């Protein structure tokens, strides 16, 4: 079934960082939903007074259903913990990939230095052989 609606997802924590004071009703709704403190809610109510009824409803709901509110809060904390854990896993994977790349680069450099040393060793051996040959010629004279 095709839906005619358009959905826009807004990250509330990013919204909070971008907007200090809501200028219209949409921003007021987002600020109300993103509020972490009563002072932030009161700032929205000061500019848009009809949000006071919503604040009162939320407070009453919390008073009448504290277990459900606490369960929602604990569920939110669990989701945050999972997200933090997943973020740490992603960061560690990136660090591991970077370390593997650096190790590969170091192995390549080591192989190049080994081949350079082998070439110098063979050149040194050739010079030592030439010195030994020249010493033998000197002894024969």
Descriptive keywords:
single chain; 141 residues; mainly alpha; 5 helices; 0% strand
Task: Give the low-pLDDT segments.
Answer: none
Q: Major beta sheet, specifics?
A: none
Q: Which structural class do you get from the secondary structure elements?
A: mainly alpha
Oligomer: single chain
Detailed description of the structure:
The protein has about 140 residues and is mainly α. The protein has a domain at about 1-65. The chain is about 80% helix and about 0% strand. It is built from five helices and no strands. The chain has helices at about 10-20, 25-35, 40-45, 50-65, 65-140. Helix 1 packs across helix 2. It is rod-shaped. The termini are far apart. The mean pLDDT is about 90.
Chart the SSEs and their pairings:
Elements: H1 12-18, H2 25-34, H3 38-47, H4 51-64, H5 66-140
Helix pairs in contact: 1-2
Could you write a compact summary of the structure shown?
With 141 residues, the chain is mainly α. The chain has 5 helices and no strands.
């Amino acid at each position: 079934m095709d839906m005619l609606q358009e959905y826009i997802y807004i990250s509330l924590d990013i919204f909070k960082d971008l907007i200090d004071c809501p200028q219209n009703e949409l921003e007021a709704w987002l600020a109300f939903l993103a509020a972490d403190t009563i002072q932030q809610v009161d700032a929205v109510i000061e500019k848009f007074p009809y949000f006071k009824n919503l604040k009162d409803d939320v407070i009453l709901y919390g008073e009448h259903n504290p277990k459900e509110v606490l369960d929602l809060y604990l569920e939110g904390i669990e989701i945050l913990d999972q997200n933090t854990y997943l973020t740490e896993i992603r960061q560690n994977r990136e660090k591991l990939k970077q370390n593997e790349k650096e190790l590969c680069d170091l192995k390549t450099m080591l192989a190049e230095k080994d081949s350079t040393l082998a070439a110098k060793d063979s050149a040194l051996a050739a010079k030592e052989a030439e010195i030994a040959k020249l010493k033998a010629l000197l002894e024969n004279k």
